Amino acid sequence: MDAHLEPWTMLGYLAGRNKARMRLGVAVTDTGRRNPAVTAQAVASLHLLTKGRAVLGIGTGERESNAPYGVDWSKPVARFEEAVATIRALWDSGGELVTRDSPFFPLHNATFALPPYQGKWPEIWIAAHGPRMMRATGRYADGWFPGTTRATEYGEQLEIVRAAASDAGRDPQAITPALIRFIVTGRSRDEIDEVVDSDIAKVFTLNSPAKDWERHGAQHPLGADFTGVQDLIPQLIDEQTALSYAAKVPRSLVQELFAVGTPDEVIEQIAEFRDHGLRYLVVGNAGAIQPSMRKSAYATTPYVKVVRGLRKL
């Protein structure tokens, strides 16, 4: 279930293999299980070693990555805010001793001697979906990096981020409006439907909060007050239970969670985000989640067409 390589170790490996200008980051780093002083050092190290290519994607994390490992999950947003403030305090210390009170990460004569690369620290991109996280993005971040928002909401949420930046005395236009989106496309409608109707895609919608299910006329299997991916612990759901949940998923919810359609339709969907302020897009090929398409050119050729089209937006 948790067969994932440690991300910052993996980025070090990728940096050694790729000497070009590819930016390197994680979408996104946990502020619960990982102490922010360790994160600050890891990202600053990668930034120096790659000559300025590191980006710190960061968020609260999820219950599944914290509670099972003994990390208190009672105040994830408060913990997140303190983690980002700690990282900024260390980076801005100029090598001087840092003492900072914090209910989560107090510093007592801490040192941080690594210099920024050519005077610039890695950009901080925050995965923010709720109002409090958006306001934190405005105060601390260089980029706003949501994943599950709708195009019709994107512009309004961006204004929350920018207003918070202005209130903090920062330039609101300096914050990059970004988005991560997984794409389901194919050469035919049948290929697209194969992925949309797959159990894997349907189970993925358990990451959506109950309010999103309700908007599509369904009740979330985990309860009417379920908040979504932050509180999901998937290892506690056995296969048969997951399949029973998948049977209840509205098709329209899958289509909302991913960018679904022919290459032209997907490009049109992303263009709507652009019209609401999006300026930086990170995409993934969700077509590969369907076993029959993993090793097929059918899963990659239309996706490549989408990527090429997106570059022209």
From TrEMBL:
Residues 5-278 form the Luciferase-like domain. The keyword Oxidoreductase applies. GO terms for molecular function: oxidoreductase activity, acting on paired donors, with incorporation or reduction of molecular oxygen. Keywords: Oxidoreductase. It comes from the Bacteria. Gene3D superfamilies: Luciferase-like domain. This is Phthiodiolone/phenolphthiodiolone dimycocerosates ketoreductase.
